[in-house]
Amino acid sequence: VNVYEGVMQTLIDELGRLPGVGPKSAQRIAFYLLKVDALDAKRLARAIEDAKDRVTWCRRCFNISEGELCAFCLDQRRDDHVVCVVEEPRDIVAVERTGEYRGRYHVLGGTLSALDGVGPEELNIAGLVRRVAQGGIREVIVATNATVDGQTTAHYITDLLHGANVQVTRLAHGVPVGGELDYLDEGTLAAAIRQRTPF
Amino acid sequence: VNVYEGVMQTLIDELGRLPGVGPKSAQRIAFYLLKVDALDAKRLARAIEDAKDRVTWCRRCFNISEGELCAFCLDQRRDDHVVCVVEEPRDIVAVERTGEYRGRYHVLGGTLSALDGVGPEELNIAGLVRRVAQGGIREVIVATNATVDGQTTAHYITDLLHGANVQVTRLAHGVPVGGELDYLDEGTLAAAIRQRTPF
Asked: Could you give the C-alpha distances from B102 to B29, B33, B72, in angstroms and in order?
């Protein structure tokens, strides 16, 4: 049933298209927006328009960017010899949060997926190969997710860079910090044993 | 850590203010908006602005409305003798969905709440009393939620309308359709027994 009047129903419909927002949440958000100060609601509208107008993809690494090159590609203090390959821009946030990495990035824009029909052409893989071919990169850290698709993509990239004069590495598997062995899946624990390090 | 660039971070912040949208969902929605067609994203921005510009509260019943009076107050075919009192406009949707009701509505805009410091003046109660005093209304169905605050509000309104020439009724408590007795709280089941009806 559609008992809201025009504009309100349109707002609920549009909100309902957002990922993770069901019809109930869409309605809740719409009423919230109706109740808050007009300036607050319009700041959200403005933010959406600004993002669409001004945010684009970095020409080099395909991270989000407001210019031709993103902040990480422009930052003079970062190490040009290492490139960390991630699936999505949000993975850069995760890596940055560790404070462990000061190299460059490359964003694939997803993973290979037979199921969803995503092939290498749909991802920013050619750009990575080009960057490596240009020289100067000593190590490529393939930091795709530890999912089936992520690992398939990692293998594909590793194969592709085989022969290029670059070391390809990947993240270690192991026991999460604070994790209890008892609750850990056997695959992770097996990997942690195999990749054990001296004290 | 704040590693997104300006406009993108602003969008994530603004989305994160919405009810039920945590930082992770805000990020997910922001990237979704970045990826979809510019027209789709701007339709959402437009919908927010339109709603803020054009949706207001019905002068009579305080439902949302694009004009002075809402669709339910304007509808000539509805029964003027009955008014259903609800907490929020979304409750009208719930009642309409039943197809059981063809009278008018009155939206309180919340419930009395000692905890949140909501008194009768904060709700659209004076307007209800005025409507009843104008005459022509035979029955007021108090359809507030079956929560403590909802029921407190229902009692307050019932007391207030005592003496006015109007019958005040409330929704029946009972077993939900399809519900199993075994899983029902004893309060609801007790009410269902007390309010049992002949076959």
From this structure: 39, 40, 9
Calculate how close chain A gets to B195, using CA atoms only, in Å: 30
Q: Which residue of A has its CA nearest to B47?
A: A11
For an interface test with B, the pick among A11, A70, A78, A118 (most B C-beta atoms closer than 10 Å) comes out as A11
Residue B38 structure tokens: 């510019």
pLDDT digits (tens, 9 = 90+) for A117-129: 999 999 999 999 9
**What ipTM does the predicted assembly reach?**
0.76
Residues in chain B: 199
Name the minimum distance, in Å, from the CA of B87 to any CA of chain A.
Answer: 13
> Which residue of B1, B2, B9, B11 is the best one to mutate when testing the A interface, meaning the one whose CB has the most A CBs within 10 A?
B11
Tell me the residue ranges of DSSP E strands in chain B. Answer: 56-57, 64-65, 79-86, 103-107, 139-142, 167-170
pLDDT for B117 equals 92
Cβ separation of A66 and B7 shorter than 8 Å? yes
Is B13:A102 a contact under the CB 8 Å cutoff?
no
CB contact under 8 A, A28 and B10: no
pTM score of the predicted model = 0.75
What mean pLDDT is predicted for residues B41-45? 94
Side chain identity, residue B98: T
Q: Which amino acid is at A159?
A: D
Residue B1, pLDDT > 50, answer no
Residue B2: what pLDDT? Answer: 56
Contact A41 B52 (CB under 8 A): yes
CA atoms within 13 A on the CB side of A82: 14
Q: What is the mean pLDDT of residues A25-46?
A: 93
Integer Cα distance of A134 and A138 in angstroms: 11
